[in-house]
Every structure is written in C-alpha cells, then in structure tokens.
Amino acid sequence: MKKFIMMLMLAASVLAIVGCGSKAKKDDSSSKVETAPDGSVIEESTAEETNPDNGLPLSKQPDPNAPVVDTIVVYAIVNGQMSQVMDSVDELTEQSLLDKLIELGTVGASTKLVSFETAETGETHEAGPGAPDGAASVSVKSGTLVLSDFAAGEGLDEEASKKAVADTFALNFELSDCTVTIQ
Looking at residue 31, what is its pLDDT? Predict the structure, then answer.
C-alpha cells in the first residue's frame, strides 16, 4: 500500500512539473510580428549583432580574463590500458611535458630531464592546412630526449614507459620520431 501511494505521488509530481513547463521556444534573434491582409502572420527576424574580430554573437564572447594555455596529448594508463589523454599546460616546454607525464603516472617521480634536441632529417613532406607562410612542403624533424633517474610508471615495464614518453614528445613537438636515452 505504501509503495502504491508513493508511486501515485511521484506520478502526480511528474505531471505537475510537465504541466507547468513553458511551451514558448527561445530564439536568439529578435522578431517583429505583422499580419497580412488575409490574416496570415508575417514574421521578420534580424540576427543578433556579431563581433567583427571573431564572428561570434555579442552575447557569447570569450572571457577576456581566461588564461591562455597550450593543449597537449600525453600517453598514460587509463582503465588499465595505454591511452592518449588531452590536457593543458601553461606553456609547452620539455620540462612541462615531462612533469605532465609524471603527474599522470607514465613515468616515476624520480625521472629528470637532462636534454632534448630536435634535428632536421633532410626529408620533407607536403604541408597541410595551417602551414606557415602558405608553404607547399615542410621539413621533417626527429628528436633525441635524454633522461636520468628514469623510473617506469606504476604497472608499466621500462620499455612501455619509454615508448609512451617517446610518442608523447613526438606528437606534441610534431616530430617524425623521438629517441629516448637513459643515463
């Protein structure tokens, strides 16, 4: 009996909420309603004014006080499997990328950055959208990362951890490959 009364009260509450809901549709444009001689409605709408700098409506401008950050992709263990994790850092540097790898558990906290260098491979490939100065091709770079006191992350062997570090650096610094050396 108590369950029946509770179900009845729940159904009445749902119907009350649904019945009191607004049926009017919101529209971002202001509209002026006129009627034609035959009685039909003529509706003129004007679009909201936009900012010429970014093309966004004036009511949806970005926060000017929001910090500017660099988006990065880091290889880390998620639900027991190696996955790409998107994150952000204040500025993309070798140390900030290593710190994020440590934070996400890909490498141990004792791991230290000794050096990171990139070099031209002498190869080029066709440039994609957003290439600097409308270049038709871009040069291919490779990287060499030297670490000391290296410790693999929890649940990872040393080779898997080194591969995750190499892939993370190659992806974020747009390298064809990255060699990780341990001192």
Answer: 54
